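Recap from last week: sequence in, structure out.
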Amino acid sequence: MFTAAALSYNEEYVLPTLILLILGLFAPGIVSIILFKHSRNTELNEDFKKHLFSLKGLNKPMTLFMFLLVLPLSFFFAILLSMLFGADNGQLEMSAGFFSAMLIPLIASIFEELGWRGYDVDSLRNKYNIFTSSIIHWVMWSLWHVPLFFVNDFYHVNKIVLI
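Predicted structure tokens:
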């Protein structure tokens, strides 16, 4: 990810930067699948498969409510909040870009959850208590995201200027 951050400041490397960022996005999920495939812990593997493929216990009306109302409203209010701090009001334009912008964090969260929650927390819980597992997970997750603060024109980099 630091390589993507370094390349992002050179316009000649837009495509390699994008490829590295996408690989970074999918890496937790891919690594998780590889680790599960090679894990000898059958209980952990069965739990992973159950969470990944089973719809049992899924509250379908609530899931629909989350996707159709909560997700779009959270984006809308986040944009309004950013406008309060001086961001451009063009963010509110309803376009294909707006909906694709909502899709990217959704896909990102699915793959991050697959990796971070799917393998990381469950395997840590096999060795440590919930508090220690959470702290180790928090440190690893935070360090994984640090390079994003250095990617040119990425939302982590934007500065908020308060007047």
